[in-house]
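quick one, two chains, predict together pls
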Amino acid sequence: MNDWMRKVLESKRQMRKQIAALPFSEKIKIMEKLRDRSLAIASNPLRRKSLHQG
Amino acid sequence: MKATLEIINRMQSDGVIGKYAIGGAVGATFYLEPSATLDIDVFVSFHMVPGNLLISVTPIYTYLASHGYKAEKEYIVIEGWPVQFLPPGDALTEEALEQAVETAVEGVRTWVMTAEHLTAIALKTGRPKDCARILQFIESGLLDTNSLDQVLSRHGLLAKWERFGHRFLGDNE
């Protein structure tokens, strides 16, 4: 693994740590946004079409 | 989710359920970064009806239906969130429910299972997403290893924990 990749991974780790340290209420709001996005993706007709096509 | 928890708390104060604790992905979010989930797992203790040895979720469904909430498969949608009410199926979840941590979501009081119990339950359940959650807990450094060891030992999960270490952490000890 090169230095650049190591920095990217470390930066990701730090970001996740920062988000994990948020108050529970804040994290629930993020979770609600993630859920809305998942539902929007799941209901997208293009996605359904591609699933049917395998 | 605030409104969902308010309704669950009302069920508790109305005597429909006893103590409850949030588990699953929402419970894990108390400790970790949020992950996408579509439902809330709520473990509940039930008020037993004298003479009836079977645990039934019927009173929950009846109560919520009378308040206009609809059941969808194994869930009941409460204020936009599908909620699954789960009786503690074994000694581990019973203990997790008993030792749940009190917290609040936007000022609404609620209870979440401890990180160690969530980890032990995920280990016992063993689906790929449970394994991923365990790895997140380990990476977070939040687990109290003494407490986790005790939970795993009490519930016969030490051998499984060792196998998990071999498989995912390259732990050769």
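The interface with chain A takes residues 1, 25-26, 29-38, 103-106, 112, 139-140 of chain B (CB under 8 Å).
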